[in-house]
UniProtKB/TrEMBL annotation:
PANTHER family per the UniProt record, alphabetical: ABC TRANSPORTER PERMEASE YTRF, MEMBRANE COMPONENT OF TRANSPORTER-RELATED
Record flagged with keyword Transmembrane helix: yes
Cell location: Cell membrane
Topology in the lipid bilayer: Multi-pass membrane protein
Domain ABC3 transporter permease C-terminal: 291-406
UniProt entry keywords in alphabetical sequence: Cell membrane, Membrane, Transmembrane, Transmembrane helix
Transmembrane segments: 21-41, 287-312, 332-358, 378-398
Family, per entry: Belongs to the ABC-4 integral membrane protein family.
MacB-like periplasmic core domain boundaries: 21-240
Protein name as annotated: Putative ABC transport system permease protein
One GO CC annotation: plasma membrane
GO molecular function: transmembrane transporter activity
Amino acid sequence: MFDLERWQEIFDTIRKNKLRTFLTGLSVASGIFILVILLGFGQGMQNGIAKEFESDSATSIWIWTETTQKAHKGLNPGRQIQFRNEDYTTIVDKMDLTLDQKSAFYLPQNITTTYKDDALIYRVMGTTNGAQFLENQDMLEGRFITIKDESQVEKVAVISDKIQREAFTDVDNPVGEYIKISNIPFKIIGVYKDKAGEREENRIFIPITTAQKVFNGADKLDNLVFSSPPAANFDEAVQQSITLKTKIDTYLRQAHSIAPDDEGGIGINNQMENAKRFYALTGNIKLFFWFVGLCTIIAGVVGVSNIMLIVVKERTKEIGIRKALGAKPWSIIGMILHESVFVTAISGFTGLIFSMGLLELIGPNIEVDYIVNPSVDFNVAMSTVFLLVVAGAIAGFFPAWRAASIHTIDALRDE
């Protein structure tokens, strides 16, 4: 039931103590504001890390060669390991592995690339048809390299959206155009866009067989890439990826006589292991943000409780008169609680509106490494406010209970 007199009392009390009420509300509003902003940036960090992992397939394992650091089986340290086609075919065809996607790369050296009379300063990479999925690319025009292109050693190339914009300004669609790689014509068959952005679009892809045969690569490979199939949950996907990585690493070390404990020779980057570490880190950071924000809110709630104690002290005689006139204890408690909840709720929603508005305004424009579009789920934000209101009610209850417990005679004697 709406009690007009109760609301008039609340507003009269607020008008008489404007500065005190403002400062109390400010402490509560700042607590909500800080919590929402911290949670927003915690989510922004998680978004940023997720975007970093968009550069390649989430379950991909990238393998490259390095120089050995330890002697093994009579071989000296300092050997440069070289992958061969046999390594790739053995892993794919002869090992008992469950693979989702697979690919290999060969990077031709000392070549030049031109379009008409213009030099193209982009990296040429020989690869297989599986690279599109492992690189997390979408085709904007034409198609990617196929198995047929590989088997027939076709002189075809796939360029990026960035290369199209920078080098093919005179044509609407570069598919069908020719570029020259070391004066050998290659027909453009597709234009791709990498989800990681332009930093991954400085590359021209050609069939790996063509790269090896035309540019004196023999059977050399520079990178091997594999991915594990989807799993039921994240932890299972991580374990599945680690198992795959271990089996491939063990085989390659045996095949190239690399000591099991040699930190050189072979480099491996497992996306799932990286994701697990980063997500664990962001999870801990978000927990820390929650802790800081909740501590700030608690400080504000304690301030509300203290103010309510002062209110009770100031209105002791008034409370005594009310009790002498027949006011029930719960009526006294309700009067104090009403004011406490009102101040807490208004302050909490004010802090929420300002924080959500700020995130909405600046969030999409933030361009910082590992922070993308800081934001907070509205339901979570509202839950924190309702939690704050409950805390405000609890904070007001104890002063209210003290007020209801004052003996009428003692209250009337108060000066």
